[in-house]
Specification:
This protein is about 40% helix and about 10% strand. The chain is of the alpha/beta class. Helix 3 packs across helix 7. The structure holds pyridoxal-5'-phosphate.
């Protein structure tokens, strides 16, 4: 006889909290202590001169990151949100320009666009990979489109070759947000490096982290220079030779500290090992959950590798005959951690549906009375359906997950699946 669901009073499969993901070890401790002993926690100066590019830990980390990712320029920043703002600012953006992006992402991706008074236009996503759908992007290009900002969501790269083709056809720049996929590959190339500018988050829970931080990557010297300026109070440093040089050189303090750089450098050495571990977890989940009809395990595109920040599944709710909410409640009661019923549909946020970002007068949309912009329900039907109904993810970045714990997660799913009738009742 199948055991009673924990939801209905039976014993839970997982009856203790699973160990949280822990990335810090003695090497990070030694790196941080070395910097503290040096007394120099940040060496940046927001004025022309050698220290405009930061201290020795920041520069050593950037050199190592450029080498690791195989790019000409890597720049450390104090968060990936800052990195996104710098990468959009590096382009020749005029207020009212359009940038096409995905709604299935963290809000920072779209906010970086709005930040420069450009207008985010949301393309729908691909149902299998959850990444931006190139066909939807192509249909949204207008005269004022300046760039595509793709996200390598959950640990797998977007379809960069198809996006590059659209960008080339229309003279657009291709930007990337690889916050969730450092170490992933596509046709042998490293995720994040196929964009004109891309980069990674180093916040807590990312594959490698230093508390808060980010890395920008590009092969373009001009972009690297503009981003270095934006990072460090550009307006007081730049000597423009044209108005175009000066445009968007409103500087910030996006500078990474020396302790963060020293820790991030140690973490970079561990990235390959961490990716391999996430892939082990996913392979064990695939072996168990793959047997459950009505659940589709993550799709990995041909030629790609997935580094599993999130293990994203789809449910066949009709065949299951229960709601996602009922399933999640039952799985949670069995002790499954990190359940994600749905993810994000940024295009439905009030900031867009009410066109209320800067003040109350509808700026920057008010700059574009020539064009209406579609936001809200019905604009990105695939993303909306997944978010509202059939997507079920596991945030596997939150826990350590040795094989014995993965086996228990699988057992919890099997138990709930064996008791679907009890959930239907
Ligand atoms: C897709 C995506 N973009 C941007 C960010 C922002 O990165 P950060 O937290 O380093 O600012 C995140 C962080 O979770 C993210 O997942």
């Amino acid at each position: 006889m199948t055991k009673t669901l924990a939801l209905h009073g039976g014993p839970a499969v997982i009856d203790r909290p699973l160990a949280p993901f822990r990335a810090m070890g003695p090497e990070e401790e030694a790196a941080a202590a070395r910097v503290v002993r040096s007394g120099v926690l940040s060496a940046y100066i927001g004025a022309p001169g050698e220290l405009f590019m930061g201290g020795k830990e920041v520069r050593a980390f950037e050199e190592k990151a450029a080498d690791y990712f195989g790019v000409k320029h890597a720049l450390g920043v104090n968060s990936w949100t800052s990195g996104l703002i710098a990468e959009v600012g590096a382009l020749d953006i005029e207020p009212g320009d359009e940038i096409i992006t995905t709604p299935w992402t963290m809000s920072a991706t779209a906010m970086a666009i709005l930040h420069w008074n450009a207008i985010p236009v949301f393309a729908d996503i691909d149902r299998a990979s959850f990444n931006i759908d190139p066909a939807s992007v192509a249909a949204l290009v207008t005269e004022r489109t300046k760039a595509i900002l793709a996200v390598d969501i959950f640990g797998q790269t977007a379809n960069v070759p198809a996006l590059r083709q659209i960008a080339d056809e229309h003279g657009l720049k291709l930007l990337g947000d690889t916050a969730q996929a450092p170490g992933a590959l596509m046709d042998g190339g490293k995720a994040g490096t196929g964009y004109d500018i891309g980069g990674f988050s180093l916040n807590y829970h990312k594959h490698i982290h230093c508390g808060e931080g980010g890395i920008l990557v590009t092969n373009d010297e001009g972009y690297a220079r503009r981003m270095a300026l934006i990072r460090n109070h550009a307006e007081s440093v730049i000597q423009p030779s044209s108005r175009a040089d000066l445009a968007n050189m409103i500087g910030y303090n996006f500078r990474m500290g020396e302790i963060e750089a020293a820790i991030a450098s140690v973490q970079l050495d561990k990235l390959a090992e961490r990716v391999a571990d996430r892939q082990r977890v996913a392979a064990e989940l695939n072996a168990g959950l793959g047997a459950l009809e009505e659940l589709t395990t993550p799709h990995v595109a041909p030629g790609a590798t997935h580094v599993y920040y999130v293990y994203g599944c789809r449910l066949d709710l009709e065949a299951l005959g229960v709601t996602r909410a009922a399933l999640v409640e039952a799985l949670k009661a069995e002790g499954v951690p990190g359940l994600m019923p749905g993810y994000q549909t940024i295009h439905r946020l009030p900031i867009f549906t009410q066109r209320c970002a800067y003040g109350t007068g509808g700026f920057p949309w008010s700059l574009r009375e020539d064009r209406s912009f579609a936001y809200g329900a019905g604009t990105c039907p695939v993303a909306e359906e997944l978010h509202d109904a059939s997507f079920l993810g596991l945030s596997i970045c939150l826990n350590q997950l040795p094989s014995a714990d993965v086996a228990q997660i699988v057992a919890a799913f099997e138990k709930v699946w064996a008791n679907l009738d009890a959930l239907r009742a």
